[in-house]
Amino acid sequence: MRLLFLGDLLGRAGREAALKHIPELRAALKLDFVAVNAENASHGFGLGPDMAQALFAVGADAITLGNHAWDRREIIPYIAQEKRLLRPINYPPGTPGQGSALIPLPDGRKVLVVQAMGRLFMDPLDCPFRTTEELLSRHKLGVTTHAILLDIHAEASSEKMAFAHAFDGRVSSVTGTHTHIPTADHQVLPGGTAYATDLGMCGDYDSVIGMQKEGAIGRLIRKLPGDRLTPAEGPATLCGAFIETNDATGLATRIEPVRLGGRLAPAMPKL
């Protein structure tokens, strides 16, 4: 199976890059499945239902969120109905929406997508290890699903790496989101799980993690809240990872970075 996971869409630049390139990448890489983290898609904070619908329309199969899940309040009734839109699985019981989805493909295969959120330097939530372990006790590669993709939305690289090693050999991939900087550690772990600490963002890299430079710099220098941060709107780099799995086991055989457009050096897998 060939899968693509795109990192955080940041504002208009990130949205438009994803909407433009997802159909092209589905064809060029012969993709079976596309997942996108879109928690920053609406002016850098949250996701609107119309934006989710547009991403699904161009070929996204699943959308994950994160700590900005509820910044657009109108997403709350939408997420209760749209099972392909995921918030972190370790939110408290009773939180709207779901943290995982078993999504069927047209050929009958199924992909389980899971999002967990880290706790180091983040909001105090339920344990992502425990909640993910409980879910995986009910799903097994090659039995209930043909691939399992975990999005670990976290600040600390150590927590992301520990999370990946904890579930190595039981899932197809663990890829990090949230810090907006693509890491160079794409690898298949010893147990067969593809891993990257952070996929990076889909957005304008002539910025401070996607936000206009002046406001972000001013906040750090003066320690004053200042104006609301606004997304940079220059040419976007689309960032993510291409993952290929063994059809028999569901484990990864390769993971490679995808970078397209904008300021960063391009990277595209060869088939």
Low-confidence parts, pLDDT < 50 over ≥5 residues? none
User: Could you state the order of secondary-structure elements as H and E?
Assistant: EHEHEHEEEHEHEEEHEE
Number of strands: 12
**Fold-level CATH name:** Purple Acid Phosphatase, chain A, domain 2
* Major sheet: 6 strands, mixed
Estimate the helix proportion, in percent: 10-25%
Mean pLDDT score: 96
Going by CATH, what is the homologous superfamily?
Metallo-dependent phosphatases
Name the beta content range: 15-25%
- Widest β-sheet, arrangement of strands: 4-3-2-1-11-12
Coarse shape: globular
Number of domain modules: 1
Beginning-to-end CA distance, first to last residue: 12 Å
Rg from C-alpha positions? 17 Å
GO molecular function, one term: 2',3'-cyclic-nucleotide 3'-phosphodiesterase activity
Pfam family, one: YmdB
InterPro entries: Metallo-depent_PP-like, YmdB-like
Active site: 68
Q: Which terms would index this structure?
A:
about 270 residues; alpha/beta; Purple Acid Phosphatase, chain A, domain 2; 6-stranded mixed beta sheet
SSE layout and pairings?
Elements (H helix, E strand, L loop, with lengths): L1 E5 L4 H18 L4 E5 L11 H10 L3 E3 L10 H7 L3 E2 L13 E5 L5 E8 L10 H9 L10 E7 L3 H10 L6 E5 L9 E2 L5 E3 L16 H10 L15 E8 L6 E9 L11
Short description:
This protein is an alpha/beta fold and 271 residues long.
